[in-house]
């Protein structure tokens, strides 16, 4: 899905969306790609560079890197057959999201919770 919050005037508001999806699996992966004025804003970065009229190779590379959406993924477990998905969209932001069922097949001997301790 896609969620966005457009505005003609600045208000500083955020949009909090909550979806309840029917779920028949044990676990789901939620992937988001976010573009907003904080996470993917090459215009703001260019301004922070002093608004150069002619960009160096390094500056061009940096601006291209800043133009990539922020990507996040997390695991969610449904409760009572319902997967609750909360999406927060900042002003002038767009969030792409997808939900996929997950069947864990970890590598033998690898324990992610143990590794991140």
UniProtKB/TrEMBL annotation:
Pfam families assigned: Glyco_hydro_39
Any GO molecular function: hydrolase activity, acting on glycosyl bonds
Domain Glycosyl hydrolases family 39 N-terminal catalytic, chain residue ranges per copy: 31-82
Top-level taxon in the UniProt lineage: Bacteria
Protein name: Xylan 1,4-beta-xylosidase
Keyword Hydrolase assigned: yes
UniProt entry keywords in alphabetical sequence: Glycosidase, Hydrolase
Native source organism of the sequence: Candidatus Fusicatenibacter merdavium
């Amino acid at each position: 899905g896609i969620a966005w919050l457009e505005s003609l005037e600045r208000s500083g508001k955020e949009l909090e969306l909550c979806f309840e999806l029917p779920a028949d699996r044990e676990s789901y992966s939620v992937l988001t790609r976010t573009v907003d004025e904080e996470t993917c804003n090459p215009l703001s970065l260019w301004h922070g560079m002093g608004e150069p009229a002619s960009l160096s190779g390094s500056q061009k590379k940096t601006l291209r890197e800043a133009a990539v959406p922020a990507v996040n993924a997390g695991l969610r477990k449904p409760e009572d057959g319902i997967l609750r998905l909360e999406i927060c969209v900042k002003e002038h932001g767009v969030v792409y999201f997808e939900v996929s069922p997950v069947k864990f097949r970890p590598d033998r001997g690898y324990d992610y919770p143990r590794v991140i301790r």
